[in-house]
Amino acid sequence: MHKKRKMFFMLMVLSLLLCGCGDHELENRSFPLAVGLESEKQGCRVVFNFPVLSEVANENADGSYTAVASKKGRDFFTIQKNYEKNSSKSIDFSHNKALILSEEFLKDEEKLQKFLEYAKTQELMARNTYLFVTDLKMEHLFGLDQNLEKPLGTYLEELLESDEDYKDKRIMTLGRLYDERQNQMETLYIPVLGEKDKEPEVTGFYVLRNGKAKERVSSELAMESMLLQGKLKGFSYQDAAGCEWRITKIHPSYEFEKNIEHPIIKIHLACTASLENATLTDWKHEETLERTLEEELQNRLNTDAKAALEKGIDISNSYKKLGNSYRKGYVYYEERREEYEKNLQIKVETEVSVVNLK
Q: Is the pLDDT of residue 63 over 70?
């Protein structure tokens, strides 16, 4: 395990050197791979996950090759500058892979806006930095790094990118948060980090509606939303009878009924389903399962979409599509965004084609 970790960090050091960082520059800079930000009564706390470059170069080094620094202060800018002053090292965020916000910080509009204005103005972190939320204490979450074979930031990056179900890697980033805070027209989902077997794990998603934190929802609802939006290459589904299905070739299409006071979006969801834990015996069996799965999936999507709308969450993310299909309705609700989800109806129709791959 140590050899693998050492090799990773040696490669990382080489990449830093190839980017134009000489030995002297490296000694005077710190390169966080993950940054956590949570609220405090008198400000906020920032937790950094740094690779210990001096240990990487030591062939006889033992133990962890990362260090956690936890600092609190009035705001992110103050904490950053105090750290740099006390350590005589500047913080270089160019290799940061993950930004983790506490739920409390995400919901605090004043603190969140102040941080985002500073980060965006200073181009503090790359726009493609992955964004997470957590309800764990930040120091505890970052302490889980000692149980991982890779630094926390790299682990979280691979946790998202290894999921092949995401189409075009439509994963929440800092840049998307910047954009949505300004545009305020989408329903987005930020992965929530919890703990399982002493390792970080995505345990749910936080809904971002019109650029602001709404509430936490299950991973299942977030996946259904991405399904209806055509953002998934595939997903696994267990029906009421215990059959395990692999859903692929997902093609949603949309149609709006042009009624301003009661907008309706009709979604026709076509997909292919293969049975994973059994074999189809004949065409009658296949036809029966196809009809059952189609009906069950359709009922579930309609039920969950309606329940989400009652909480003000549009899992079809339809307002963004409204501009191309029904401009009059789009303009009408542009100044009435709070009314849109209250008046909206979502009607899902599924078309499932079962294939037997056994």
A: no
Tokens representing 350?
């599924």
Pairing of strands 43-51, 29-30: unpaired
Closest CA to 100 of 44, 55, 149, 34: 34
Greatest pairwise CA separation for the chain in angstroms? 74
Mean predicted confidence (pLDDT) in 199-226: 93
Residues 145, 49: contact at Cβ < 8 Å? yes
pLDDT, mean over the chain: 87
Q: Residue 202 in contact with residue 192, Cβ under 8 Å?
A: yes
Cβ–Cβ under 8 Å, residues 303 and 323: no
Closest CA to 41 of 69, 73, 68: 73
139-143, 182-186, 194-198, 294-298: the lowest-pLDDT one:
182-186
Q: Please give the Cα distance from 192 to 215 (Å, whole number).
A: 11
Backbone angles phi, psi at 12, to 5 degrees: -65, -40
Q: Three-class SS of residue 7?
A: helix
C-alpha 90/C-alpha 25 separation (Å) is 10
Q: Is the pTM of this model over 0.70?
A: yes
Name the CA dihedral angle for 131, 137, 140, 145, rounded to a multiple of 10 degrees. Answer: 0
